[in-house]
Amino acid sequence: MTDIVRGLPSTHGDSFQLNTTTLIRHAARTFPEQQIVYRTPDGGWDRYTYADAYARIQQAANVLTGLGVGPADVVGILDWNSKRHFELYWAIPGTAAVMLQMNLRLAPEDLGYVTTHSGASVVLVDESLLPAARELAPHAPGVRTWVVMSDRPSSEIDPGLPNAVFFEDLMAEASAEYDWPVIDETSAYSACYTTGTTGRPKGVYYSHRGIYLHTMAQAAAVKMGSDDTVMLITPMFHGQSWGLPQSAVYSQAKVVLPGRYAAEDTSVLVDAMIAEQVTVANGAPAIFGPMLAYLETLDEAPDLSRARLLCGATEPPLSMMRGFFELTGADVIHAYGATETTPFVTVNAGIKPTLTGLSDDQRWDLKRCQGLPVNGIEVRIVDAAGADLPHDGVAEGELLIRGPWITERYHDLDDAPGERFIDGFWRSGDVATIYPNGYLKVVDRLKDVVKSGGEWISSIDMENAVVAHPRVAEAAVIGVAHPKWQERPVVLLATVDGDDVPLSEIHDLLATRFAKWQLPDTVIRVDALPRTSVGKLDKKVMRVEYADLYQVVR
Amino acid sequence: MTDIVRGLPSTHGDSFQLNTTTLIRHAARTFPEQQIVYRTPDGGWDRYTYADAYARIQQAANVLTGLGVGPADVVGILDWNSKRHFELYWAIPGTAAVMLQMNLRLAPEDLGYVTTHSGASVVLVDESLLPAARELAPHAPGVRTWVVMSDRPSSEIDPGLPNAVFFEDLMAEASAEYDWPVIDETSAYSACYTTGTTGRPKGVYYSHRGIYLHTMAQAAAVKMGSDDTVMLITPMFHGQSWGLPQSAVYSQAKVVLPGRYAAEDTSVLVDAMIAEQVTVANGAPAIFGPMLAYLETLDEAPDLSRARLLCGATEPPLSMMRGFFELTGADVIHAYGATETTPFVTVNAGIKPTLTGLSDDQRWDLKRCQGLPVNGIEVRIVDAAGADLPHDGVAEGELLIRGPWITERYHDLDDAPGERFIDGFWRSGDVATIYPNGYLKVVDRLKDVVKSGGEWISSIDMENAVVAHPRVAEAAVIGVAHPKWQERPVVLLATVDGDDVPLSEIHDLLATRFAKWQLPDTVIRVDALPRTSVGKLDKKVMRVEYADLYQVVR
Prior knowledge:
The structure is a homodimer. Chain A is built from 16 helices and 28 strands. Chain A is an alpha/beta fold. Among the domains of chain A are: 377-445, Luciferase, Domain 3 (Luciferase, domain 3, Roll), CATH 2.30.38; 450-545, ANL, C-terminal domain (GMP Synthetase, Chain A, domain 3, 2-Layer Sandwich), CATH 3.30.300.30. Chain A is globular and about 70 Å long. Strand 9 (182-183) of chain A pairs parallel with strand 1 of chain B, so a sheet runs across the interface. Chains A, B: Residues 25-410 form the AMP-dependent synthetase/ligase domain.
C-alpha cells in the first residue's frame, strides 16, 4: 500500500456519503414528470413517472424492512429488465442491504452456489421465473423468504416455494415514505458473480461509492442528459446492465425497460426503439446483429441518428457497426469492461477531433478498438514478468486495471491473490496494445493466445479473418498442445450450409495477414460453437474436447 | 450529525483517493496532443499541448518542493488567466499543499489579511503584478519567498520584493518527472476567501474530493467533451474560474487562456472565441454584455451555435441572452452558485424536453431562472423560523444548500456558526422559490428584500422592471428605514443621458407588476452605482449612504 499523505483539513462537506439512492431521489425531485416506459408480462407496454417510481421505491424499502431486511443483509432478484427490477435497484441498496444479481442463465447448481455463498436470505422472483426458483430452492437452503412478484392476484398463484409471500400484497399496505439511512459509502451496494469459464463463480461486491463514481463517469463519457431516452437491453442481473440504469437516472433520462424478451424477439426491441425514439441502448453484438437484420427488412429505415448503441462483451463486427450507421445513422460505440470493472474501463465514443487526416476506412478501423480509458481509471500493459511495456502501439501485454470502481479482491475467497491482482491492479486476463495517442486495443484473451514455437498468435485476429469467408457462420481458434511447437492453432467453424470449408480456402483468407508458420494445420467443422451462459465463446470446452488432437504424451 | 450505517464491505478499490492531479495526468496520457492556447504578455497568442503542460506541471512541482513546500503548506498565486496559472493549478495541490486564490481586485490591506490568515508562506506573482505585490508585501509578513514569473530574463527584472526568486530559472533546472503523493482526498486543495460585503473575508477551503466530484458533475451537466474548446474568462483567482479549468481537463477539451485583459478588451475575447471556435466559456453579465455589443458591430456575425456561455454572478438580462442567440446562435446558460459552493448549485442547461407547450416568451422567461439543482446537491427553502416551505412555485424562503462540494464551516473562524449553517446546510442568504417541476428561481438577497409593512418586496424584481426604461443604464433598489412602514423601497439609478427620470415614469413601469403599496416614493439619480471588487452591486454602501433618508429616529 502506498502511504496516504494528509494536507490541511478542508471546509467542504467531506463527510457527505455517496449513496446511490440519492440519485433517484434527486431525479424524482427535479424531474418528477420524466417517464419510465416498461413492457408488461402480457407483451404490452405501459409507463409511469419518476415520481411514481420513487413512491413505489419507498414502499418497497418499507416492504423489505418489514421482512426483516437490514444493513448488510443480502437480497437476491430473479427477474427480467422489468419495472419492479428497476424499483428494487434503488430500494434494496437504499436500506443498506446488498442487492444480489442472479443470473437466470446459470445452472441451478451454480446459481445455488452463488446464492449460498453470498448468504442471501431473501429472494424476489418474478412469477414467470417460478419454475427456475423451484429448481433453485433445494440448492439455496439459506433463503428464508421467497417474494413472488406478479401483476396477477396472489390468490391465483401457487408459488410452490417454502415461505413464499406476495410482493404486491405487501406493497399495497406499505407507506410511500421511507427515511433512507445514511450509508457508509464503502458499503456493498450489490453483488455480481463472475461467470468465468474457470472454476466457481467469484463474488464482486460493488460499493455505493464505486457505483456513484462510475455513474458520473459514464454519464459524462456518453454525454447523457434529460433529452435522452435510454433502453436497457443488457440484463440487469449481470453487471447491473453495465451501469446504465444508474447513469440514466443520474442524467434524468427517459428509461425504457423491455422486460422479458427472447433472442427471437428482436422486433420488440427495434419497434420500441423506434416508437420511443431511443437515443441510448446497450447490448452485445449477439443482440445488435439480429436487430440490424430486422431493420434491414423494414420498408423504410428509421432515422436513429441520435442513437448511441453501447456495444460490449465482444468486439462488434465492423459490418454491423457500418450497417447501423449507413442504414439508420445510429452510432455503435464499442465499450470495454468486465464484471470486475463495474464495467466501464474504456469507451470509443467519437473519434478524437485531432485525428483529422484519417480515411473513411481508417476511421472505421479505429472505431473497432476498445477506445480511450475512462477518466478515473488507470491502465497498464505488462509482459509475462510483470514489467511495464511501452504505449507504442506495438508492444502487447496483459492489461492491468485500477480505479475506484475496479475490484481489488474477491468476496470471501482465499485463493492466491497474485493470480488475479498485482499492486492493487486487477489482472484482466486480456492481452492489449496501447497506442501513443491513448487508444487501447485488446488483442486476445491471455489464455486464448496460441503460443507456437515461442511466439504468440492472436486467436481473435485469426477468427476475424476466418469469418470473412462467405460460408462461415461463426469461428473459433484455439491453441492445441503440440509435441514439437508447444501449441498449434486449430480452427473450429460452423458454416451456413453445413458443408465443410477446405483448409486451402482458410489459408487463402489468412495469407495476407499471417506468416506462413502461423497458418493452422487443421480445420474442424461443427454444428455450433459452445458458448457460456452470457453468450461468449466457451473455449474451455473446446480446448478440453480437442486436447489430444496432436497426441501429445502427457 | 446523522448516524452513518455500515453495510457489508465491498470488493471495490474504495481506498482509491480522489486526487485532482490525476485528472491532468489522465488527460496527458490519453490526449497528449490536445491543445492549450494562451495569450502572452505582449498580447500575442501561443499554444502548447497537454503533454507539454504536464511536463511543465511536474517541473513546477519539483520547483515547489525545492522551495521547501510540502503537505499542508499554503502557496498563493497573483496572476491572470495565464499558462503558468494553469500549470500551478495542478502542481500546487499535487504536492499536497494548498493553492491560495488571491483576488487582484482586493485592497492591499484585505489581500494582506487573506494572505496572513491562510498562513501562505510562498507567493508566485506575475511580473505585471509586481507593483501590487510590493503594496501587498508589508501586509503579508508571513510570506517567506516571492517567486517572480515572467518570460523575460531574470537579469532584466527588479522584483523589489524581499527574498525573491525567479520561476523560469528554477524551472529550467527542474526535472520533468514528479512522483505525485497519494493525498487523503479530504485534504484542502485550494483556498478562496469570500469577498462578501459584510465583515472580513472568510476562508473556504475546497477539498480534493469536493473538487473532483464537482468537476465530474459539471462535465456531465454541460455535456463537455474533447470536441469542446473551453475559454476561461472568469478569473482563476476567484472560485477557481467556477471549476471550468478542471472540468475542461476532465473532458480533455481544448483550453483557451486569455491572460491579462481589461474590461475594454472585449474584442480580445470575441476575436479569440471566433478564431479558436470556442464552444464553452464562462463569465458574468458584465463581461458578456460588452462582448455582445462588440459582436453587433461586426460586418458579419459569426456562427457560435455550438457555444454554451455559462453566465453567473448575477442574473443575465433577457435582452443579452436573446441577443446572443439571435445574432450568433450561442446559448447563454444561467448557472448559480457562490464561493462557498465551488460553485455549481443549479444550472439552466436546456429546457426540459417535457415542457413542450411553452410559448417563445415562456421559454425565454424560464431560461432566466437559476435552473435545476445539479445532481449531488440538495436544496431546501425555509421561512424565517427555519421551517421547510413547499416547492410550489409560490412560497419564497431562504435557500439552504448541502452536498459534497458545499462548505460546511469557514476556515479558522469562530463566529456563530448558526448564522451561516443549519443542520449541515449552508445558508445562502438568497431568497428563492422552487417550482413543482424542480426549477429554482432566486428572488432576492435576504438582506436586500425590502420589508415594508410586514410584507416583502423583491428588490431584484423591481430593478429588472426599472432598467426596462429606455434611458436607464443601471438601477438598484434598496430598503430604507421608515418610521411608519419599517422600510420603504428607494430606487437608485444612472441614466444614459445624465438626466433625471420622473417618479411617475417609474410608477408607470412598475404598475402592472407591483401593488400600489409596493411602489417607491423616491427615485435618486446617481452617476454610477457602487460595485464590489467582483462587480456586484454594493448595496451595503448604498444603504449606509441613504440610511437617514426618511429620518428615522434611532
